[in-house]
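Forum > Structural Biology > Help requests

Title: Can anyone predict the 3D structure of GTPase IMAP family member 7-like?

Hi all, first post here. I have the sequence for GTPase IMAP family member 7-like but no way to get a structure on my laptop. I'd be grateful if someone could post the structure tokens.
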Amino acid sequence: MLFINIQFHCKHVAVPGTFNNVIKTPGRGRKEKSEVRRLLKKETLVLDLRIVLLGQTGSGKSVAGNTILGREAFEESVTKHCEMKRGEVEGRNISVIDTPGLNNPSLTEKQLKTEMEKAISLSAPGPHVFLLVIWLETFTNEEHEIAKQIKELFGEDALKFTMVLFTGREKMSKSQWKDFVQNAETQELVCDCGDFWHVINSKAEISPTQITELLQKIENMVERNNGQHRTNERCQRREKERIRQEEEKQRREEERKREMEEVRRREVERRMEEERMREEERRRELERRREEERRRQDERRRKLERKREDERRREDERRRDFF
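Reply #1:
Sure, ran it for you. Structure tokens for GTPase IMAP family member 7-like below:
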């Protein structure tokens, strides 16, 4: 890349390589290479880096995520749900969270907010940077309103942690790029994001140096934010509430299971008691029958004895009559 100076009236303090320093044009190849070498030599500040990708539908968020991780981690289609992938890049452990487009027509406002809260949860304890991906060929002046949408979704200070990533640089001529950079809406968007920005080519044209520079600029942002990551109290409260509700749901489910187990236990005990009673009844019935059988046998025995006794008496009488 080749650069020349250009001035912007951002309220934020510029850092090397940011939007109020450079645009593409011939004449400063040596200085640009020197800047790249400086970035490459700079000590890595963040070893565990968490990046949340934001942008409109079709802006190339998934492509950017794959490029940063150096592999096909995300499916390059319309993203409907948040997804996190990890990888090691240039000595850093990087977590990249892909998100649905901020203008995704298939999501309601409530669903979009839920997905953004999920993105914060996936990046716990919080992202170091919201990387706002913008495809240069589809950028419109209205797109600067996206900064307002980010603040509505993540809080007023979210832009402190937001960097603009323009993609598809090689699709523009030098004069088109210069006009784009000088566009008031472009400047406003970049200045809203603390003058942190980066530009890369399309997927097939991206060079490793562009990713190295991007990661170093992210570290510059982290350094400016005193090494802190983004925390969203509202999202954290909602996440805590979600966790509380999940725990309450689990507690109720466990209580329901215990109650069901108790019901089953009591049912088993009831059936066992009924079976015991039936068994006791059968035992008593058996004893009753045995007792009746003994009485009948006793009765038959007594009858037989009486019969024998009667027989003996008759025999005795016959004998006496005979003599």
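The domain at 41-230 is CATH 3.40.50.300 (Rossmann fold). The longest strand covers residues 48-54.
Shout if anything looks off.
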